[in-house]
Amino acid sequence: MADVAGVTVSPSIGETSDAQKNVFDLGAFVGDLALEEDPSSDDISLEGLEQELEECKNNDVVANILSKGTKLRDYTKGVENDLRKVELDSIQDYIKESDNLVSLHDQIRDCDSILSQMETLLSGFQAEIGSISSDIRILQEKSMDMSLRLKNRKVAESKLAKFVEDIIVPPRMVDILVDGEVNEEYMRTLEILSKKLKFIEVDPLVKASKALKDVQPELEKLRQKAVSKVFDFIVQKLYALRKPKTNIQILQQNVLLKYKYVVTFLKEHGKEIYNEVRAAYIDTMNKVLSAHFRAYIQALEKLQLDIATYNDLIGVETRSSGLFTRAREPLKNRSAVFALGDRINILKEIDEPALIPHIAEASSIKYPYEQLFRSLQKLLMDTATSEYNFCDDFFGEESIFYEIFSGPFGVIDEHFNSVLPNCYDAIGLMLMIQIIHKHQLIMSRRRIPCLDSYLDKVNISLWPRFKLVFDMHLTSLRNANVKTLWEDDVHPHYVMRRYAEFTASLIHLNTERGDGQLDLNLERLRMAVDDLLIKLAKNFPKQKLQTVFLINNYDMTITVLKEAGPEGGKIQMHFEELLKSNTTIFVEELLQEHFNGLIKFVKSKASEDPTASPDKPITVAEVEPLVKDFASRWKAAIELMHKDVITSFSNFLCGMEILRAALTQLLLYYTRLSDCIKRIVGGSALNKDLVSISSIMYEIRKYSRTF
């Protein structure tokens, strides 16, 4: 068939190009096609032929046949001949290969036999594998069952092992607890015993076990032995706290805290013994600390420097001594009683270590009570902080601290209650109030609340005492005996100096806290001293001396307030106003003393127009004596004023300021006089006697340069 196809196709392909070159009209060719008549053609239908021809229009083979005019029947015969030839050729090829085909057939038959045997063999294997799979499944089930049993046995073994471990009492453990020393190994063994005791008490299954009946008596004996042994040990350590010169804090930190589990064990397994240990520690520390604080207070009392007594008040005169009172140094010479001075430094040294009495006593140094108070409170704070932390760590109970310190608190309160009623040092009391406030801040930063109520109680007791002493000072001013206090001296009075130093000290101490009640009390004190100062001034016979006395006292008060710091506030402003007003009064009095006529004339007539009153005009004769008098002695008068100021005022700078104010006022008066003379008819005749303004200015500058 392949050859036929080749024969048929080859000529058509060869002629394809000619068919493409010649325009072929299939319709025209078919129209001229002559077919032989076939008797059977009547049965052949040509319906659809035209459509089929149209479909074959583009077929190259059909087009080639039709273009050559070949008859279909001839072409068909040619094709049949070609097919027959090809068939014969194929038969010859088959005959040539017959031996090979026979051999191939035999081989196929042999393979089929072998495959049949293999099929039989594999079928046997399949049956055996099915049997093995069943065995494997059985083994797998057995393995899973054994694995589950093993797992259950391991769980049971672990629980049983833990039970045995928790309940048995090893001989080594017994030896350590009975015969061993209390050390780190003993502590570890004690923890193991505690776990065993808890184990048999907590688990209900353990309580029902038969093993417990054998072990429980032995565990109870060990518990009793351990409780007894650690009780003896801890009591022995507590007794060491009572030995003299024992450093309690070092013993607590380096010894007792190492064995704090002993207390935990007693608390859990020997409550009665624990209560005995607790009571023994409380009793020991209460007595030891009470004795320490009592001894420390007694040592501090030897270092106390008495600052003020009942009579050391602002308005009290203490120069004379009674029959039954020892002579004392006059209080006005001991103004440091009311001055803060270096005592303020204690607030900067608030966290310094407490005083060591025997060292201070060896150096023969005495201290104001606030120094001793700070040392006592500092020692109390440090001791309380250490003890509070130890009790919390060692016993796990904060309440123990308050039971221990009931004794030391009582000792300190007893001392304080004996000192406070005899304390008349208001500055010292205010310093102690400040110390307590700063100590409260320190304890707050330490986050130790154990002294909160104690410090509040001390603070509450200090304020009423301070108020009492302050009111004593206030009363002393209000009830002061003016005749006794008065001295024929215009310089600052010692009572006023006491007041100034006292007020400056309290203002300075109140700056940080800003207590409004204290400000009100200081205002009351200021009003009282104002009244007393006016009464003292009235004892001077001359108004000028009264004014000088007031100026000196006001100036001294302002100076002291300024030296204390810029916190003088309203009180300082009040005295500055008084100083200013009294300075003006003194200037007028001083000028009237030396230039009375000039001042009267200027005040009464210099401001008038000399020609305004025709009935009584100002004449040259009226003014001439004043001009000549001034010209003759103005320098001498200024010198006298200078000497007067120098001797009258204790503060040189204040005196020079007053002198300058007086000379300036004098210049103003004389300038007004000169202006008046210029307006008088014929006043030019006095020009030769007038002192030039520049001369007076020169003299003023000369005295100004002296300071």
Automatic annotation (TrEMBL):
InterPro entries: Vps52 (IPR007258), Vps52_C (IPR048361), Vps52_CC (IPR048319)
Keyword check for NAD: no
Keyword vocabulary terms for this entry: Golgi apparatus, Protein transport, Transport
Chain ranges of the Vps52 coiled-coil domain: 93-266
Domain Vps52 C-terminal: 283-587
Chief site of localization: Golgi
GO cellular component, one term: GARP complex
Cellular compartments annotated: Golgi apparatus, trans-Golgi network
GO biological process terms, semicolon-separated: endocytic recycling; Golgi to vacuole transport; protein transport; retrograde transport, endosome to Golgi
Family matches, as Pfam families: Vps52_C (PF20655), Vps52_CC (PF04129)
Top-level taxon of the source organism: Eukaryota
GO molecular function: syntaxin binding
Family: Belongs to the VPS52 family.
PANTHER family linked: SUPPRESSOR OF ACTIN MUTATIONS 2/VACUOLAR PROTEIN SORTING 52, VACUOLAR PROTEIN SORTING-ASSOCIATED PROTEIN 52 HOMOLOG
Protein name: Uncharacterized protein
Species of origin: Vigna angularis var. angularis
Lineage: Eukaryota, Viridiplantae, Streptophyta, Embryophyta, Tracheophyta
